[in-house]
Amino acid sequence: DANQLKESVFLKIPIGDWKLYTVLKKSNRWDGVIELIISGFLLSSIGGYLFWHISNQPILLEQQVIEKTKQIEANKQLFKALIENSLDAVAILNEEGFNMYASPSIISVLGYSKKEILKINLFDILHEKDKPLVAENLQFVLENPKTSIVGLISRMKHNDGTWRWVESTLTNLLEDPNVKGIVINLRDITAKIEAEQQRDFEHRDKDALINSTHDLIWSVSSNFKLIAGNKTFLKNIKEYIGEEVAIGDPIIFEQANFNKEYLDFWKNNYIRALQGEFFTIETVIPAFQNREER
Fold it and tell me: What mean pLDDT comes out for the span 26-54?
């Protein structure tokens, strides 16, 4: 505004004449102070936060380290509890088959202390007949890192001199820097194997008894089909009706053209037996196609 301008000085400079003007304005002494206080407060707050954040970094890092350490220790204790209280034994072998580690459960499985088992080579306690199978599987695992073989069954010598059936899992962790070995999980399955062997023996024994008699012995399902029959039964039926009878075939021999009364007689007796009744009967097999009655 020209009315507010007041000529204050006249200067002569080389490139021309210049006039300088000043503005006379009444100012408030508080002008800019509030802005300065607010700016100072903001800068102080930011600086204080940065100082607190930076100064607390070591504390936060220390807390994180403590928490991680506690977690690792808890995991170690859990792993230790699982290994020590497991019915399975865990061993770690080197490439030559010597034990580098054995869990406490090795005592319950094979009877050796941890110190004893660490001096023993795996093949020293393997049954002679099982060595080729175990060697073949161990070689496969060695040639294939991070692979596992599950369900390998063999016999190992217990510390008391007896042979124990053992089911093993082999895992190649030679390349794992935390293991650097072949991990073997061992489970004693002696009782299971012996029970299976006993069942097989009883089956063979029962089969021998049934097939050593001249009596006809057979069993029938609820839909009148053959479940089993001894050799004498199968032989006589073939000779009589001229056909072989197999497991699952109908036992009411309608193809033999027996009369309905005779077939119903057997069907009714089968029903009585299937209902749990125990009884003895005598009967005559009627003559059939030039065959005499029996």
Answer: 63
